[in-house]
From TrEMBL:
This is UDP-N-acetylglucosamine diphosphorylase 1. It comes from Melia azedarach (Chinaberry tree).
Length: 499
């Protein structure tokens, strides 16, 4: 460090110390910021310590400024464009529960198991969120909803994968094929806030019985938060305010991490994609996979019927006359349309709720990753963002998983019953809906129905509506193969039935 210079007129005068001014920001980097109107990132440069200046330079250098500028401009511009009128989804695009036959379900089940046995299915988990709204800073998948087994969401999902692998292996041997192991590769998208904790959680639990090399972790990206006029917000004088790029960031993350190539090298052709916070999710569902293959579409989604007009769920619609299927969030749906009734059926016209249960071909995922990156349109979420000026009203830029659907040349919707496949865990106990308690009850009630249908009996010390039986995914996937375990036996609820 340069020594301070002592200045004085004579030996008796008070000495003053003049500190050398700080070096200016790197000229090339400053010019790049000016090119995109973001030079305010260095506005407090002179007040920073040498370490803070180094941190700021590295933080700015890590940004893909041309890409970020393109995203900001395209997203702000698209916000001002008129939205195309929406139409209900045509009935031919939906396989409803009431119209499906037992023969179809069995055929799809076998088609799905065959594809799994041939290694054609990969599973993609969206798990970038923390359990903040649940009162936990851990990854949401670590959360224990209070089942008798004490299993976390991650463990329930891992054991369902193990179960489907076993069912697929049995399918091979029953068909006269040679008995061998079946592996479903599990791709888990984390975020910078959950990655390390997620990896350690899986390691400490020995991957819940899965092989470590069949699980691949990768991180979703982050993107700077911006002001209403598109300026990057500074969280501190030396740090850019960033936020995860939404669950739709999975497409660019798969591309940048070369995992689409990894899937192709493994022979994967179909990808089952879902969110972590559903306690009843049927991971790697053979029936859904078989339906998807049978329809020959590029994309599909499981849907549930909207419970009531004001329910806070996005719905599938057709955007524009004869346009593609897409999802409209509940906040964007006009109340008159939300409550409109189909006079022929007596049900809501816009009734097919998106619950983040999707199936894609690998070819389509490649198309989406390239298309979304080219179009660069993100949703703008207006939020109070921590900044050097306190909490500033600005935008977080996000993509959503359902942004893929407008790119699909063909899409099919597969109705499921929410009491069988949708138990969201989003809010802390005490809230009105989507709590660990409500999810636990949905699981226990479903499994209790399975046990009774298999000839089992229950006793309980509290009202049945408050308790029930949990069936381990290692025993049964959808209630099958329970007769030998349950018939004639009495179980005292609450308990777990496991091997």
């Amino acid at each position: 460090m340069r020594e301070p210079t002592v200045v004085g007129t004579d030996s008796n005068a008070a000495s003053a110390v003049a500190i050398s001014p700080p070096p200016p920001p790197p000229q090339a980097l400053l010019e790049r910021l000016k090119d995109y109107g973001q030079e305010d990132a260095f506005v407090l440069w002179d007040e920073l310590s040498p370490d803070e200046r180094d941190f700021l330079v590295k933080d700015i250098e890590s940004l893909d400024l041309p890409r970020i500028d393109r995203i900001i401009r395209c997203s702000l511009r698209s916000q001002a464009l008129p939205v195309a009128a929406i139409e209900p989804v045509p009935e031919r695009n939906v396989s409803s529960v009431e119209e499906r036959t037992m023969e179809e379900r069995e055929r799809w089940w076998k088609m799905g198991l065959k594809a799994v046995s041939e290694g054609k299915l990969g599973v993609l988990l969206l798990s970038g969120g923390q359990g903040t709204r649940l009162g936990s800073s851990d990854p949401k998948g670590c959360f224990n909803i209070g089942l008798p087994s004490g299993k976390s969401l991650f463990q329930l999902q891992a054991e369902r994968i193990l179960c489907v692998q076993r069912l697929a292996a049995q399918f091979i041997s029953e068909g006269g094929g040679s008995a061998g192991s079946v592996t479903i590769h599990w791709y888990i998208m984390t975020s910078p806030f959950t990655d390390d904790a997620t990896r350690k959680y899986f390691e400490s639990h020995k991957y819940f019985g899965l092989e470590s090399d069949q699980v691949t972790f990768f991180q979703q990206g982050t993107i700077p938060c911006v002001s209403k006029d598109g300026r990057i917000i500074m969280e501190t004088p030396y740090k850019v305010a960033k936020a995860p790029d939404g669950n739709g960031g999975v497409y660019s993350a798969l591309k940048s991490s070369k995992l689409l190539e990894d899937m192709a090298s493994r022979g994967i052709k179909y990808v089952d994609c879902y969110g972590v916070d559903n306690a009843l999710v049927r991971v790697a569902d053979p029936t859904f996979l078989g339906y998807f293959i049978d329809k020959g579409v590029a994309a599909a989604a499981k849907v549930v019927r909207k419970a009531y007009p004001q329910e806070k769920v996005g719905v599938f619609v057709r955007r524009g006359k004869g346009g593609p299927l897409t999802v409209v969030e509940y906040s964007e749906l006009d109340p008159s349309l939300a409550s409109a009734i189909n006079q022929e059926t007596g049900r809501l016209r816009f009734c097919w709720s998106n619950v983040c249960l999707h199936m894609f071909t690998l070819d389509f995922l490649n198309q989406v990753a390239n298309g979304l990156e080219k179009d660069s349109v993100y949703h703008l979420a207006e939020k109070k963002i921590p900044s050097i000026h306190g909490h500033t009203l600005g935008y977080k830029l996000e993509q959503f998983i359902f942004d893929a659907f407008p790119y699909a040349p063909s899409t099919a919707l597969f109705e499921v019953l929410r009491e069988e496949e949708f138990a969201p865990v989003k809010n802390a106990n005490g809230a009105n809906f989507d709590t660990p308690d409500s999810a636990r009850l949905l699981v226990l009630r479903l499994h209790t129905r399975w046990v009774i249908a298999a000839g089992g009996f229950l006793t309980h010390s509290v009202p049945l509506y408050a308790t029930g039986v949990e069936v381990s995914p290692l025993c049964s996937y959808v209630g099958e193969n329970l007769e030998a375990i349950c018939r004639g036996r009495t179980f005292h609820a609450p308990c777990e039935i496991a091997f």
